[in-house]
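Protein modeling request. Please complete all fields; requests missing the sequence field cannot be processed.
Requester role: graduate student
Desired output: 3D structure, token encoding
Chains: 1
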Amino acid sequence: MSTSTLAPIATPRHPWLAVGATGLATFSVVTTEMLPVGLLTPIANALGTSTGSVGLTLTLPSLLAALFAPVVVVAAGGMDRRRILCGLLVLLVLANLASALAPGISWLLAARVLVGFCIGGIWAIAGGLATRLAPEHAIGLATAIIFGGVAAASVLGVPLGALIGELAGWRWAFAAMAVLGLLALMLLIALLPPLPVTSAITPGDFFAQSGNRALQAGLLLTLLLVAGHFMAFTFVRPLLLSLSGFDGPWIGALLFAYGIAGLLGNFLVGLMAAKRLGMTLALIALGLLLVPLVFLGIGNAPVGGGIALLAWGLAYGGVSVGLMTWMIKAAPAAVEVATALFIALFNVGIALGSWAGGQIVDHYALQHLLWLTATVFAAALLLTLTQGARQASRVGDCC
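Delivered output (399 residues):
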């Protein structure tokens, strides 16, 4: 086994503040990524373009993040990762300012290309920082805090961005994100210790993991869980309106409750995964499998739809931290390589799942979408119970 490219670091003076600052950075980048969700119509009206064209501001960064995640860690060479992370936050601030000042859709899309670069790079580096910042016994909790930025962005980031857009205009929503990114940058500068590496990562380091069966299983599981989720969640609004019979004004409150459940799931899995990784991921896959089945069984009424949505948030909330724990255990000597591949497959899953879901919704009924989603989650559960569980035991899992 090769030695790790991550050099030992000095113990941070305030390790949990450093972890929290990293969590704020991930919150900033995920909120920036998802911000257009609540602003599509006003952006389209202001820039004189179609809502579909503005929708590219969501698709483009996700696809590019899949490409840029491995590119950034290779291009970073032997540079201190603290400098890389701070540099990427500077670019994120500039991307949000460029978005706020965009005179047309071409300018906005160019700014979102830069956002995609930042998403891939920040996650590739920040995703594995828990192992360097926190004591060994608390790595699970630290990972949950860092990845809590994903769930917190759903609960707070996107709704607040939409509220700012409604009160002051969509440009001020992007400007506010620039301010938040600047705050995260200042905290990282103040709290993160130097993060040196012993050697640069090369493309050969990625090829060296081609025989790592545990890593391969984790990447396949990532693709299945994320694609299955976004296959259905992209259309959660019509599911709640058309299938469960909720009125439109309920959607915001329901999604907020979903986000709170996701935060809870994130921290529960963070505490469980370090000791019982295989079992934890199997429970996540089982929980996600039950969601479309509950929708199909009792989801044709508001109570059933609400139960399914809360279960969905609780189960999916732990996906990121659970899978990241798998990656760390699968490739402890190549954490940045594993993280970059994880981020790449995660974003491919977002794009593939939302595209496949759109094809089903355009040609079939929502019930067909739920059956396909259940099939994907069943495959994920089977993987965790067979090859995935065995591979996890080989890298230190205790089930």
